[in-house]
Amino acid sequence: MKYTEDHEWIQLAKDGDSDIATIGVSAHAAEQLGDVVYVELPEVGAEFDKGDDAAVVESVKAASEIYAPLGGGITAVNEAWEDAPETVNAAPETDGWFFKMKITDSGELDGMMDADAYKTFLDSDD
Question: Mind listing the domains of the chain with CATH numbers?
Answer without folding.
Answer: 2-125 (2.40.50.100)
